[in-house]
Amino acid sequence: IYLILTASTVVGNIVVLYTFYLYPYLRVPSNLFIINLAITDILNAMGRNNFVLIGLIMGPEPYTHLFCNISGFINSLGHVVMTATLAATAICRYLVIVRSYARKITTTVVRRIILTTWCYAILNCSMPWLGWSRYTYHPFEFTCLPDWHDENNFSYIIFVFIIDSVIPCILLIACYWRIYAFISANANRMLIHIRQSSLKARRHLPLRIMIKNEIKITKVLFIICVLFMICILPYSIVIFILIPCNVDVSPYVVFYCGVLINLNGSLNPVLYAAIYPKLRKIYRRLGCYLC
Questions:
Q1: What is the dihedral of CA 45, 50, 55, 61, to 10 degrees?
Q2: Looking at residue 207, what is its pLDDT?
């Protein structure tokens, strides 16, 4: 399972990055978030998935104190960057669609936001190194992660659950709900106004295309966020609620909840293809080459 997930995630997201490299006009501010998500998915696949494979094949023996700290940090980093990026994407989509801040959400601003998410994630994941909790080997997940089972680390568990799960989910739901409400109330009216005369329609053709593109990108990004929440919710419930409450959870449930999180990285490139015809074209070429 993990070999398939790793291969599909790495190949799919490398194709995404190659598409953005090949077509510079795609590198608009909103798409920089997708580039960051693709990089994060590759990090998760090359990091967490391979660490799990090591645990599956060799058991806990390779996980010395140093290796456990490094692998645990990398495992946590990818997840925190992903949630922070999705939350930042939702906020920026809200500002562009609802508040008409498109001119202010420039490439420079988005790059600073992405840099901030990485700095925040590095600081967040460094806490176990600094004495707040610790990274330890989890036999049910075959890799090192923060110690969710130690009652002395309960404050850290609550912190991670709220900061890295609850707040991002609330932001995603709130922002996309406001976007949906705004589009439902205004999109048809804007397009009808633009179509009032053929002259106006020709004059506003770029505006119409821009509106449709923004709505399309927002829809796909919303689906990406929903998929992410579906993939992460079972794991969050098991790790942050059931296990700390001493509920007997099967090791298979814990393992497959972890698999579900990693599945997210394999599915994202498929959703990106719904936005970009150029990406679909490269996928078709790759498929023909492999066949």
A1: -140
A2: 56
Nearest CA to 13 out of 57, 49, 53 is that of 49
| pTM for the predicted model, two decimal places | 0.84
C-alpha distance from residue 48 to each of 52, 131, 179, 201 (Å): 6, 23, 34, 51
Reading the block at residue 178, the tokens are 């406001």
Q: How far is 113 from 107, CA to CA, in rounded Å?
A: 10
- Rounded mean pLDDT, 76-99: 89
Contact criterion met (CB below 8 Å) for 42 and 14:
yes
Average pLDDT on 145-166 reads 84
The C-alpha atoms of residue 26 and residue 235 are separated, in whole angstroms, by 34
CB within 8 Å of 126: residues ≥ 6 apart: 73
- What the chain holds in terms of domains, given with CATH numbers, is 2-290 (1.20.1070.10)
Structure-token pair, residue 242: 């059931």
Query: Tokens 């999705």 correspond to what residue?
Result: 86
**Confidence band for 208, pLDDT divided at 50, 70 and 90:** low
3-state secondary structure of 144: strand
Kind of pairing, strands 135-138 and 143-146?
Answer: antiparallel
Distance CA 233, CA 230 (A): 6
In this prediction, residues 261-280 reach a mean pLDDT of 81
The pLDDT of residue 189 is: 61
Residues 6+ apart with CB under 8 A from 197: none
Question: Quick check: helix, strand or coil at residue 23?
Answer: coil
